[in-house]
Design brief:
Layout: E1 6-9, H1 15-26, E2 30-35, H2 39-49, E3 55-59, H3 65-79, E4 84-87, H4 102-130, E5 133-138, H5 151-171, E6 176-183, H6 206-217, E7 227-230
Parallel strand pairs: 1-2, 1-4, 2-3, 4-5, 5-6, 6-7
Helix pairs in contact: 1-6, 3-4, 4-5
Length: 240
């Protein structure tokens, strides 16, 4: 179903984003992969060495409107269309509220919320014109409940959940599907951590999230998956 379709994946240099790019490429999709550093160029070469030829890397800051407009324009220039946007770029940290600086607060909102807004805004006119498209945002399980020491991060995920729900209602008449994937604990580089630590052995793996993206993106046209929530079996979490 995804064969020869075109996707944009943000935050694709490593971790979840890189694995999403791999899984989508395995489905035969053509990709624009986006990262904030030159590492995205190395990731593109790695994917090409794996046999995926239709990979276009773009170094961009998701919090900048001009950058995200350039990502979409570049994708259309190279591939002629955009069928899928995966908003994966995100940052997080955990501190007591009074220890959070204004600069940290602004940064997490600029990337986690403003970045989702700008990428979505940039791609919507094209998707509306073709009256088709899918937008998937990698959010978090804390979009549905709160945790201590995570006020800033949790607030961004509540914002993303509200944003995605509203956009979904705005664009359904154009045949555009909008959904979120809300994982619990994932063995990745989140919050400056290291992937593969022994204490993370029972956490979700990056391929679990990537497989969920493929599932949501592959849904038949008559079907809308609003939200997927995934937890590792070992995680204890509140039940709302």
């Amino acid at each position: 179903m995804l064969q020869n379709q075109i996707a944009i994946v943000t935050g694709a240099s490593r971790g979840i984003g890189r694995e999403i790019a791999v899984k989508l490429a395995e489905q035969g999709m053509k990709l624009t992969i986006v990262g904030s550093s030159s590492q995205i160029l190395n990731t593109a070469e790695e994917l090409k060495e794996m046999g995926f030829s239709d990979i276009t890397p773009v170094q961009a800051d998701v919090s900048k409107e001009e950058d995200m407009e350039n990502v979409v324009n570049k994708t259309i220039e190279v591939y002629g269309a955009v069928d899928l946007l995966v908003n994966n770029a995100g940052v997080g940290f955990f501190k007591l509220t009074e220890e959070v600086t204004l600069e940290e607060w602004k940064k997490v909102f600029e990337i986690n919320v403003q970045g989702v807004f700008l990428a979505t805004k940039a791609v919507l006119p094209h998707m509306k014109e073709k009256r088709a498209g899918t937008i998937i945002t990698i959010s978090s399980d804390v979009a549905r409940y709160t945790i201590p020491n995570g006020a800033a991060y949790t607030a961004t995920k509540y914002a993303v959940q509200g944003f995605s729900g509203s956009v979904a209602q705005e664009v359904r008449e154009y045949g555009i599907r909008v959904g979120t994937i809300n994982p619990g604990m994932v063995d990745t580089y989140f919050a400056e951590s290291t992937q593969g630590l022994p204490e993370k052995k029972d956490w979700l793996k990056v391929e679990d999230i990537a497989n969920a993206v493929v599932y949501m993106a592959s849904a038949p046209k008559h079907m809308l998956i609003d939200e997927i929530v995934i937890h590792p079996f070992a995680q204890q979490y509140p039940i709302a």
